[in-house]
Amino acid sequence: MSEQISQVMDADDIRRALTRIAHEITEKNRGAERLGLVGIRSKGAPIADRLAALIEQIEGTKVPSGALDISLYRDDFNTRQPSVGRTEIPFDVNGRTIILVDEVIYTGRTVRCALDALMDMGRPSAIQLAVLIDRGHRELPIRPDYVGKNLPTAHKEMVDVHLQEMDGEDKVYIVKHDK
Amino acid sequence: MALKRKDILGLQDMSAEEIELILETALSFKDVLGREIKKVPTLRGRSVVTLFYEPSTRTRTSFELAAKILSADTSSISPSTSAVVKGESLKDTVLTLQAMKPDAFIIRHQASGAPGFVANLVNASVINAGDGMHEHPSQALLDMMTILEKKKQISGLTVAIVGDILHSRVARSNMWGLTKLGAKVRFVGPRTLIPPEARNLPVEVYTDLEEGLKGVDVVNVLRIQLERMKKGLFPTTREYFNLFGVTKERLKAAKEDSIVLHPGPMNRGVEISSEVADCEESMVTTQVTNGVAVRMAMLYLLIGGAQDAAIN
Known about the structure:
- The complex is a heterodimer.
- By secondary structure, chain A is of the alpha/beta class.
- Chain A contains 4 helices and 8 strands; from the N terminus they run E-H-E-H-E-E-H-E-E-E-H-E.
- Chain A has helices spanning 11-28, 44-59, 109-121, 164-167, and strands at 2-9, 35-40, 65-68, 97-105, 126-134, 146-150, 157-162, 171-178.
- Chain B has helices at 16-33, 58-69, 90-98, 114-121, 137-151, 169-180, 209-213, 237-244, 248-251, 274-277, 284-303, and strands spanning 47-52, 73-77, 104-109, 125-131, 158-162, 184-188, 204-206, 218-221, 259-261.
- In chain B, 37% of the residues lie in helices and 14% in strands.
């Protein structure tokens, strides 16, 4: 089984996409009041932190950010038993507009889990979704509000996002497995 | 990550990796306890039966709550209100319940080895909630979690277990768990309450309290079971308190940042002074909270996901 790896985004592409998303967030929400960023573990979390920093640069307002572990809400328990990570959301979600952040959206099931988890923590006034990559193939009626890049892919392919904070580089790859 | 085993019967036959996995998972589950809605759908559709042949407040409630927070269904059997009163054997009780397809049994029994006996009879997972004088794994795990939270790591610590070691399953489970994770364990108590086989166990034995507490990081105080008095193992509770009661004065021998644990229920003025029980270094209430988190972790790792799930 061989692997074909092609790079589709480099560090500058990622930076520009996140800058644009930060601007879009402040445009849609008319500022940064009552916002809260929640990154879905594990790669959504550093992206949420970066967006928080960018929004602070744009609006001068500090927006709190946290990380959500959804392993307890997964719907695929028949095939996986994931390790449980920490949820650290150091602010009250009640009454805030929460921007959920993930690096890739695919079937939409992860986002569904995140919505369930957030609702169990309180009652946000609204939830919006920001993703770096939308690779298509939704299985649920869930759509992102902010997209870094649309990347149509085949089921056999995998989108691999590398982030400085965890992988030492900012790059997005498409990995194709050939049998 | 999963525990590749059907049952948790004791810490003696578990590896350090398995113990660390449970502790790490428990730390994550503790977050859920701090939320307003203490419910996650993780074990939805699973059922858990608790079978407590000995009385219990903490352990039983803790296991039941742990299962319920994870959305599992629970039912609870105690012998006094069951067919055990009519003479039904443990084997028949368990086989009958197994026919109702539970995913796990949680058993406390006065006979050492009873949970192991049950584990061989049923396909369901079996968790030992305390058997005779043998083991009480969930207690030791929550003790270790409490130590881990305060001391950041267990390896290299010295832990004194003080009191009626002879009859204590808590002492034995703690000894196995702590030594596997690299801590040094001391058994401290009157000679009549230290088991003779301690000389073959990985512990240091002290029959003088102050010597035993010198320089320790953790003091785990065991309950003196007042019924032991009638067997002549010590003269009176007052004399026990005078010689082996853990008081503020005696604690000075331990390290300055030492912590005090007690599995509960406490006999204030016998094995522990009220002053120590309520002091800042006493982790008793934290232990109870951690107990729920640890039991959630045990249930999740045993019956969460498919039994033969691939590890991703």
